[in-house]
Amino acid sequence: MFSVLNKSAKCASAINMGAFKSVLQPRYLSSVMNSSATAMNVYKESCYFKIDFKINEEMTVAEAVTRFSAFNIGCLAVTDKQDKVVGVFSERDLITKVCAQSKSTHSVKIKDVCIYSPNIIIAKKDDSLESCMSKMMFKDIRHLLVVDDKNEEFIGMISIKDLIKEIIKNKTDIITRLSDFKIGKGAYFGSE
């Protein structure tokens, strides 16, 4: 019993002294992100790289739901008759524009509920992880279309999950620091 109380008191003391404060600072967050990874690198490792994540604007929402389920994804790139990407349709659009309004997924077309450009938030293929994450957090979105820097041509799509996987894959430092803290190597991260 005293052991648990003692550990709780130590944790509370460490928190009060600022043990976790540095982890929440933007500078620290950017330091744990892989600065060399780009939107294009993340896309190549993404589940979107291997599947057809486009849907024609004339298709129904029910067809989009089938793809969401089949590929375990949450967003589709919307194309026009010429197969040019013109918008996005996400699970959030499904919920807010179809389900919440009691519309039939079998009768509503994608073009009636998707988000069209220029309102689409994009990532250039050379954007950093930090830049991509900032765009997602600032706009409260979970997917970005990736475009070529030079000609604005559509390349692919990435999700917040893809960014997090990349950060975790390349950064064991924070895991080591948290492990050190857990086993009592110091109240502050990195202390001996």
UniProtKB/TrEMBL annotation:
Keywords: CBS domain. Residues 48-105, 116-174 form the CBS domain. Gene3D superfamilies: CBS-domain. PANTHER family: CBS DOMAIN-CONTAINING PROTEIN, CBS DOMAIN-CONTAINING PROTEIN CBSX3, MITOCHONDRIAL. This is CBS domain-containing protein. It comes from viral metagenome. The lineage of its organism: unclassified sequences, metagenomes, organismal metagenomes.
